[in-house]
């Protein structure tokens, strides 16, 4: 995806956001946010009081005072609208850049699902699920689908931002193609797998634009808490009118609290800071996910990512570099290392797998054995097959094979030979080192072992240590045998591993962890991963993977980078932390506001309460105004934090909580004392109060 | 604080903590069927006789059982009062109680509040006291413990549909816990001189006449007022004194142990027949917090990690000790107006010093203030001194402890389930702050739990604040405020806080035995009790049905100082934010006025 994170107050976003702030004053919009709706109603109410006071009515307070309070109450509502509008604007800007990739495309629809069948030119938007299309070099792929014939190199930079072309071919795990990407060479016949409007880009756009319409489970629970707090403060505030009426009657003097002051107190006490920024935080979280090139199918999935405590990671590609590399030739007695290398190279000349290439390269490096042209030698290549599970070359009478120990055993035994004990010992030794042994044989004789080594990615060990500090357990999944798996697990520093993994074993492992009460995340790409992806709590499918895998997952990683799971977890956590921190901040703020407002609103009835005016605010009116103004300005001040999310450091839960409590709890108590006092000084300086 | 007060507090806590583990362990066993075959046979027989099934209940069934049982209790207590004149064991020939007072008292005892608008010895027959009030003292306490058991099961179980059987819990809490404990305590009290008989009251002639004032009431029981609205007060002079008699000790034992608080005599445990010696005072004060504190251990044990129980207990203790030290200090400080008049209020060998108005000289500042804090920290409400006469700030602390929801130890059962509701709220915010779906003890806290927690925590402030508003606005409410001004407001606020939180103690000085207060306070008590119990049971049911998540290093540990701080902070902050404006108009301004004039 080409959308970049935009700077915080991008001018071209700020202006429409400001206009939107006013548009959002619509009652139907306001009622969706209960906390801000209370402010909205309060502002309407004091507007009425102000008009009444202006019209020469017997106002309960000076018209300028009611007017100023009213003005700032409206600002409070507008600032909340602005925060939301800005977050939406940023997301929409991202979505727009995605939409650009979705221009009208002419597609070559095939009448029959085979290369060379008669074709019609149709609009890409007219293609339905099940249709078959031909895409040739230079064409844009018209919709998401699956390659059913052919192979082509595809430029997916429109989606992934990665300029290196990728190969997409029929069958296997690299058969999925995405609408909007371009075929660079060759051709493919693809079957469309989605109807118009259901493609990944459509889903992503809908998600970004609709982010605030679906609340995540934690957001709902938090909203309930905020509503409850609002109700509590509403009660604490409205009862003050009868209380002070009584006090005035009992004292026989003084004046009860004014309604304007009560509205001001209410607005200051209810959690407006978090109430105003709540939806902006959610939208910004989705945008950050997009920024990391991950499409989540729901906000719920993003949130669940923060809860994960077991990560299942495929060894290959995630923990180790995708490919094993030949590292040594280990001959059995009677064969020299060079002979073994020569045979191994011959057996690998036509083997285009990365392992095969690395054998050729190693032989060349160690013994300067040149690559030979397999055709010139008159050799026939025996490719790897699922039945024989070995590959090799027939060179005249020479039958050179390489493969796993059991495959070669079967091969040499049919030829009347056997695996010598020495070779078996070498195989065990290599396995123990975490490497993969390939046995090389010629006819009935075993020549030796090629040691293929897994290369653990740099920095991965530190990454896992970080996860451990976050309380997340890492489990490596591999098809290797236990010995190999154990050695790599130790080298990479994962907490556990599943060796000789089958799809069933993966599924069973996930179920077992879930039964123990863990939340499991995994990545997968192949069709055989689909059951496990569907079972996992958070499942990130690789974009390069099959359609089945993508359907089963609840997130798709456009970059097809398995370590992305770690970033997904962080974004999920950040979203929750930002909400929690701002809730704490919002509630902690009330302490200072009480000290500002309580002496002020009761000044008419109990002037003695001025002893609580610890900030020494200039006058009751100035105190109320300062608190209201602070309450409004803090929303704007915290917009960047809401959009960026608070900083996440991988530490234990206790340490994270201590830190956030110190910053947002204690900070939340102290900051408004300073802020309100400064505003009060300012108001006094301009002579307003 | 004097050395004597410090040592009293120290010994009190030491004895309390020594009893927690054994009693807590004992109560864990009460959550299951008895192991002893003879007890099991007895239980089976009794239940068969009553036709009660002991199948496990869903939370809805459990809540329904609690409600129906309580409603039946209300009807029984109401009927006993209304018919006592014609029933046996009424040697004083006390008349039937008025409908409004009967209504109030019935709810009061069924809800474990024991708010008393009446004077015990001059209103209730022995039969009403024992069969009505005494019985409810046991079963209302047992019902509270049963609800706490249900909530504990909610945390301890996983993927379960049921939270226990109310009838079994009720029976076991009564038969195996409250009865034996109160039997022992009653004997101890009798040994110290607390009366226990069925005699009529004894008349004696006093050495000098006593003069006191009484509010004039019309024949409907309404106070007669001056045109201004103040009640008319008449002076009365008497030379005869009546020494009240009755089965007091048995009832006092359970009123303390079951955090009921309803005194046998009008002045409650300030009465020499109810609380004659320093030892009875210590035992009665100890009995208030014994079961609530031990239930924390039961909780920890039942959820499989006693540290969890100790952490909750630590949070309660922090609040309690802070409150005790504050109240004792404020009371010891005395009254500046008296100092200005030359009164000596310093503590010395011959006097306890401080503010002694409304306190027994037998107990002095320390024992009176400690009792006041214990009785309001729990939902007990029994008193050995008059909270109304405390200094403004000394009275603010007991009132605020009530308003916090009585979760510093709290009522039997209700203290624990109230505190666990706060723990869920604290862990919700903490969970968000560490970036995980909030959880407590391996249970996810989701929208349903937050809804119920919010109701449970906010119902009592709503009742107290709105009730006080009605009290100071309505003519019927204002009529019997005998101390207009901030103090009168405090009295009304205290009354509604006490009723809504099922405490039962009062700032006297408010004529509460009027149809107005009987009605409104009765309603506050009912909703204050069951408006919390029903959501708590809903939480129990919802938690029991959830999976138990593995508690790993990513989860916030809930057994350390951080959790204790968080929990205490949540309780205090919620309590402060909801009540500070109201308190500012009552005790706070009263304090400022008192100290600014001197």
Oligomer: heterodimer
Low-pLDDT regions of chain B: none
Number of helices of chain A: 24
Distance from N terminus to C terminus of chain A (CA atoms, Å) equals 54 Å
Q: Tell me roughly what share of residues is in helical segments of chain B.
A: 55-70%
**Main sheet properties of chain A:** 7 strands, antiparallel
Using only C-alpha atoms, the radius of gyration of chain B works out to 23 Å
Overall pLDDT score of chain B:
92
- The proportion of residues in beta strands of chain A is 15-25%
Can you walk me through this structure?
- The complex is a heterodimer of chains A (689) and B (598).
- Chain A is α+β, with helices and mostly antiparallel strands and 689 residues long.
- Chain A is built from 24 helices and 20 strands.
- In chain A, strands 1, 2, 3, 4, 5, 6 and 7 form a seven-stranded antiparallel β-sheet that branches.
- In chain A, helix 9 (259-269) packs parallel to helix 23 (620-644), helix 10 runs parallel beside helix 23 and helix 13 (337-348) packs antiparallel against helix 14 (354-367).
- The radius of gyration of chain A is 34 Å and the shape is elongated.
- Residues 1-5 of chain A have low confidence and may be disordered.
- Chain B is mainly alpha-helical and 598 residues long.
- Among the domains of chain B are: 24-197 and 248-294, no CATH class; 202-243, no CATH class.
- Chain B is built from 19 helices and four strands.
- In chain B, the strands form two sheets. A two-stranded antiparallel ribbon of chain B has the order 1-2. In chain B, strands 3-4 form a two-stranded antiparallel sheet.
- In chain B, a hairpin with a 2-residue loop joins strand 3 (439-440) and strand 4 (443-444).
- In chain B, helix 1 crosses helix 9, helix 3 (59-83) runs antiparallel to helix 18 and helix 8 crosses helix 9.
- Chain B is globular, with a radius of gyration of 23 Å.
- The model of chain B has no long low-confidence stretch (mean pLDDT 92).
């Amino acid at each position: 995806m080409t959308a970049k994170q935009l700077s915080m107050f991008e001018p071209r976003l700020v202006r429409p956001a400001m206009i939107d702030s006013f548009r959002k004053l619509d009652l139907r919009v306001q009622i969706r946010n209960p906390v801000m709706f209370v402010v909205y109603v309060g502002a309407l109410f004091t507007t009425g009081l102000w008009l009444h006071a202006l019209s020469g009515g017997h106002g309960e307070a000076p018209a300028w005072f009611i007017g100023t309070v009213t003005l700032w109450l409206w600002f409070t509502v507008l600032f909340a609208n602005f925060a939301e509008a800005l977050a939406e604007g940023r997301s929409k800007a991202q979505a727009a850049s995605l939409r650009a990739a979705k221009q009208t495309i002419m597609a070559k629809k095939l009448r029959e699902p085979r290369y060379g069948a008669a074709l019609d030119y149709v609009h890409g938007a007219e293609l339905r699920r099940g249709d078959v299309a031909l895409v040739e070099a230079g064409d844009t792929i018209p919709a998401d689908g699956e390659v059913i014939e052919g192979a082509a190199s595809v430029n997916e930079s429109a989606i992934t931002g990665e300029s290196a072309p990728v190969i997409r071919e029929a069958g296997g795990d690299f058969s999925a193609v995405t609408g909007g990407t371009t075929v660079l060479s060759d051709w493919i016949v693809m079957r469309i797998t989605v109807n118009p409007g259901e493609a990944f880009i459509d889903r992503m756009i809908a998600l970004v634009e609709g982010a605030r319409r679906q609340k995540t489970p934690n957001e709902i629970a938090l909203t309930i808490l905020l509503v409850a707090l609002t109700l509590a403060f509403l009660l604490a505030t409205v009862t003050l009118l009868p209380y002070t009426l009584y006090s005035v009657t009992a004292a026989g003097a003084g004046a009860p609290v004014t309604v304007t002051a009560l509205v001001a107190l209410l607005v200051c006490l209810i959690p407006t800071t978090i109430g105003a920024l709540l939806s902006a935080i959610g939208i910004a979280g989705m945008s950050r996910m997009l920024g990391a090139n991950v499409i989540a199918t729901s906000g719920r999935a993003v949130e669940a990512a923060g809860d994960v405590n077991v990560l299942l990671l495929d060894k290959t590609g995630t923990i180790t570099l995708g490919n094993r590399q030949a590292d040594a030739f280990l001959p059995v007695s009677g064969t020299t290392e060079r002979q073994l290398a020569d045979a191994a190279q011959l057996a690998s000349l036509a083997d285009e797998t990365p392992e095969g290439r690395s054998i050729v390269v190693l032989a060349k490096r160690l013994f300067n054995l040149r690559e030979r042209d397999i055709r010139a030698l008159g050799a026939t290549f025996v490719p790897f097959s699922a039945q024989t599970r070995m590959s090799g070359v027939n060179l005249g009478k020479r039958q050179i094979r390489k493969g796993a120990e059991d495959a070669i055993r079967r091969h040499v035994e049919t030829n009347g030979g056997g695996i010598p004990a020495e070779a078996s010992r070498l195989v065990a030794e290599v396995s123990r080192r975490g490497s993969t042994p390939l046995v090389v044989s010629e006819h009935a004789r075993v020549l030796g072992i090629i040691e293929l080594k897994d290369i653990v990615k740099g920095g991965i060990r530190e990454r896992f240590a970080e996860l451990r500090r976050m309380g997340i357990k890492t489990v490596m999944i591999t098809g290797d045998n236990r010995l190999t798996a154990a050695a790599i697990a130790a080298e990479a520093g994962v907490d556990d591993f599943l060796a000789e993994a089958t799809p069933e074993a993966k599924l069973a492992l996930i179920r077992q962890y879930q039964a123990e009460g863990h939340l499991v995340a995994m990545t997968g790409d192949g069709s055989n991963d689909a059951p496990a992806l569907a079972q996992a709590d958070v499942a990130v499918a690789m974009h390069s993977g099959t359609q089945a895998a993508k359907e089963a997952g609840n997130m798709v990683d456009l970059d097809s980078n398995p370590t992305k799971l770690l970033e997904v977890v962080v974004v999920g956590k950040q979203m929750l932390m930002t909400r929690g921190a701002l809730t704490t901040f919002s509630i902690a703020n009330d302490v200072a506001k009480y000290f500002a407002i309580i002496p002020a609103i009761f000044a008419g009835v109990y002037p003695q309460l001025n002893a609580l005016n610890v900030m020494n605010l200039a006058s009751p009116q100035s105190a109320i105004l300062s608190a209201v103004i602070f309450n409004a300005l803090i929303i704007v001040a915290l917009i960047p934090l809401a959009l960026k999310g608070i900083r996440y450091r991988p530490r234990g839960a206790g340490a994270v909580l201590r830190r956030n409590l110190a910053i947002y709890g204690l900070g939340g108590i102290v900051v408004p004392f300073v802020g309100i006092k400064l505003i009060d000084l300012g108001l006094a300086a301009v002579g307003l109060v | 604080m004097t050395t004597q007060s410090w040592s009293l507090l120290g010994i009190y806590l030491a004895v309390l903590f020594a009893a927690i583990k054994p009693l807590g362990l004992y109560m864990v066993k009460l959550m299951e069927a008895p192991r002893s075959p003879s007890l099991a046979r007895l239980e089976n027989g009794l239940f068969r006789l009553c036709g009660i099934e002991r199948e496990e209940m869903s939370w809805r069934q459990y809540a329904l059982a609690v409600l129906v049982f309580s409603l039946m209790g209300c009807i029984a207590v109401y009927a006993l009062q209304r018919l006592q004149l014609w029933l046996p064991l009424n040697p004083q020939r006390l008349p039937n109680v008025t409908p409004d007072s009967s209504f109030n008292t019935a709810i009061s005892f069924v809800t474990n509040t024991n708010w008393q608008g009446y004077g015990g010895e001059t209103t209730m027959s022995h039969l009403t006291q024992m069969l009505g009030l005494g019985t409810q003292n046991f079963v209302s306490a047992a019902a509270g413990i049963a609800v706490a058991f249900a909530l504990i099961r909610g945390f301890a179980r996983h993927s379960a549909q049921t939270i226990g059987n109310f009838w079994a819990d009720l029976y076991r809490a009564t038969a195996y816990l409250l009865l034996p404990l109160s039997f022992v305590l009653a004997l101890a009290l009798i040994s110290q001189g607390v009366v226990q008989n069925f005699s009529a009251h004894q008349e004696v002639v006093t050495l000098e006449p006593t003069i006191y004032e009484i509010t004039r009431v019309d024949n409907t029981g309404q106070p007669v007022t001056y045109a201004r609205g103040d009640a008319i007060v008449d002076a009365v002079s008497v030379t005869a004194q009546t020494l009240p008699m009755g089965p007091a000790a048995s009832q006092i034992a359970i009123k303390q142990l079951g955090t009921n608080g309803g005194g046998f005599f009008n002045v409650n445990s300030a009465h020499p027949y109810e609380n004659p010696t320093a030892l009875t005072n210590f035992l009665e004060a100890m009995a208030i917090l014994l079961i609530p504190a031990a239930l924390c251990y039961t909780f920890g044990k039942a959820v499989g990690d006693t540290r969890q129980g100790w952490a909750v207990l630590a949070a309660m203790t922090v609040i309690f000790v802070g409150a005790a030290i504050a109240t004792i200090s404020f009371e010891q400080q005395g009254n500046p107006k008296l100092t200005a008049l030359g009164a000596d209020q310093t503590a010395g060998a011959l006097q306890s010093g401080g503010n002694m108005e409304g306190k027994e000289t037998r107990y002095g500042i320390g024992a009176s203030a400690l009792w006041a804090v214990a009785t309001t920290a729990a939902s007990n409400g029994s008193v050995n001194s008059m909270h109304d006469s405390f200094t403004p700030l000394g009275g603010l602390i007991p009132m605020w402890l009530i308003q916090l929801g009585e979760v510093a130890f709290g009522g039997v059962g209700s203290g624990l389930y109230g505190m666990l509701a706060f723990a869920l709220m604290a862990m919700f915010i903490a969970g968000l702050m560490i970036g995980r779906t909030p959880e407590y003890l391996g249970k996810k806290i989701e929208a349903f739990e937050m809804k119920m927690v919010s109701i449970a925590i906010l119902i009592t402030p709503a009742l107290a604040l709105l009730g006080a508003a009605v009290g100071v606005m309505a003519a019927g409410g204002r009529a019997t405020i005998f101390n207009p001004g901030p103090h009168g407001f405090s009295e009304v606020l205290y009354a509604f806080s006490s009723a809504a939180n099922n405490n039962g103690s009062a700032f006297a000085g408010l004529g509460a035995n009027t149809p107005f207060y009987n009605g409104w306070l009765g309603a506050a008590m009912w909703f204050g009790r069951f408006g919390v119990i029903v959501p708590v049971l809903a939480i129990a049911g919802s938690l029991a049905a959830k999976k138990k998540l593995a508690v790993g290093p990513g989860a916030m540990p809930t057994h350390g100082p951080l959790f204790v701080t968080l929990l205490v902070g949540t309780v205090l902050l919620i309590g402060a934010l909801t009540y500070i404006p109201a308190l500012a108009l009552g005790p706070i301004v009263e304090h400022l006025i008192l100290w600014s004039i001197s």
